[in-house]
Amino acid sequence: GAAGVLRAGLIPSLVLKLKTELDEIQELILDTLSNCLRVEVSEALAAGAVTVLKEKLSHPSTAIRSKAAWVLLEISSHAEGKVAVCEEEAIPALVSLLEDTQPEVQVSSTGALMFAIVTPQGRSSAMGAEAIPPLLTLVAEETSKARLNAIKTLTLLAELPEGRKTLLEHRATFQRCLADPSEAVQRAAEIAITVIDWKP
């Protein structure tokens, strides 16, 4: 399993192989990395994984785009991963995937953003990449699988004064989410509204 791959020190080799292998193999590598990076991320970061993954975000294959974003999500769940994702400027690439035509890519990219923008630099990068409009689109789509992640990501952006100001104009979008069949979406929308309505 993942522990064995980590113990054997295979992460740098896997990252390297992502650049050259056939698409089907790349998918398997991304799955393996995803499992391993839940546990430990430093070897992957040292091997330049974020740069390679960022390139994969524009791959023609839906599966590879989605899985690359998912691996970035796993990386961003670690403190040092969040820093690397910001420093390697992967956030604008993730923002561009919010408008991907494939729902699974949208889900992975919103999830990765949600983790990556916990830091002030991450939020700033997302604002610079104009993340709010595509995120609002995902929130407004009732059938969007990315709706929950999009709400949570926007809630983080609402912590910035300029984010809050923009989102105040779209409060109704979050209000509509209170009727979502998913309790998680309802709760996230309630929290978002509270953050948006907060007055310093």
Could you write a compact summary of the structure shown?
The chain is mainly alpha-helical and 200 residues long. The chain contains 15 helices and no strands. It starts with a helix and ends with a helix.
Please provide a written account of the structure:
The chain is elongated, with a radius of gyration of 17 Å. The mean pLDDT is 95. With 200 residues, the chain is mainly α. Helix content is 73%, strand content 0%. It has 15 helices and no strands. Pfam families: HEAT_2. InterPro entries: ARM-like, ARM-type_fold, RSP14. This is RSP14 protein.
* Proportion in helices: over 70%
Indicate the mean pLDDT: 95
The total count of helices amounts to 15
State the major sheet: none
Poorly predicted ranges (pLDDT <50, ≥5 residues)? Answer: none
> Which percent range describes the beta-strand content?
under 5%
Protein name: RSP14 protein
Pfam families: HEAT_2
Keywords:
elongated; 200 residues; mainly alpha
Helix-strand layout with pairing:
Blueprint: H1 2-7, H2 11-17, H3 23-37, H4 42-46, H5 49-56, H6 62-76, H7 79-87, H8 90-97, H9 103-116, H10 120-128, H11 132-140, H12 147-157, H13 161-168, H14 171-177, H15 183-197
InterPro entries: ARM-like, ARM-type_fold, RSP14
Protein name: RSP14 protein
Pfam family, one: HEAT_2
